[in-house]
Design a protein that fits this description.
This protein has a 5-stranded mixed sheet, covered by helices on one side. The chain has a two-stranded antiparallel sheet with strand order 1-9. The chain has a two-stranded antiparallel ribbon with strand order 2-3. By secondary structure, the protein is α+β, with helices and mostly antiparallel strands. It has 6 helices and 11 strands. Helix 3 runs parallel beside helix 6. The chain has a single domain, classed as Glutaredoxin (3-Layer(aba) Sandwich). It is globular and about 40 Å long. The termini are far apart.
Length: 187
């Protein structure tokens, strides 16, 4: 192979890797991502309020109503394979810790923010993935959701672990990391 051909293959590979985010869905372009990250809630800060309609559309759930609990705010979408994979881990974690006592919280729950725009796809994914907690919310604006912008979500799955006082403890925990972090706060 010629050097020019090798450089071309390398450049194409780099564009594909950066452009597709290693399998996660990219929500924002690069310029807005930099602006969003500057405003993203940081560890130790109060989590911004979220108040969105539930799956049945007749009830809204506020994140602040969950104060007193350890809460994982999870951003996901039904058609995203990494989200579906992580949902399985979250179901196990929820079932294990939902009734536990923590340093400044009683119980663990998940506040799932769907970035879907299709109600039926969202409902099917909740059932398929076995998401049994009640806090399933979405504005059905897909990747244009203002909540995603407020939280600086640029790829999914994305999450924030919130303590009983509503403060951010950790960001983007996966599988064993999530469990290890939750266990640090057990009584």
């Amino acid at each position: 192979m010629t050097n020019m051909f090798k450089i071309g293959i390398f450049s194409l590979s780099l564009v594909l890797v950066l452009g597709f985010g290693f399998g996660n869905s990219n929500i924002q372009n690069e310029e807005t991502s930099i602006e969003i990250l500057a405003k993203t809630p940081k560890i130790g800060e109060l989590a911004p309020e979220i108040n969105l309609p539930s799956i049945n559309r007749s009830v809204t759930y506020k994140l602040s109503d969950l104060r007193g609990k350890l809460v994982l705010v999870n951003f996901w979408a039904s058609m995203n394979a990494p989200c579906s994979h992580e949902n399985k881990n979250q179901v196990r974690t929820y079932n294990k810790y939902k009734n536990k006592s923590f340093k400044n919280a009683q119980g663990f729950t998940i506040y799932s923010v769907s970035l879907d725009s299709n109600l039926e796809s969202w409902k099917k994914a909740i059932k398929k993935d076995g998401l049994s907690w009640p806090y399933q919310v979405s504005d059905l604006k897909g990747y244009e959701s203002e909540v995603a912008v407020t939280y600086g979500v640029t790829t999914i799955p994305s999450n924030y672990l919130i303590d009983g006082d509503g403060k951010v403890l950790a960001i983007n925990l996966r599988s064993a990391q999530l469990v290890k972090t939750i266990e640090k706060y057990l009584k």
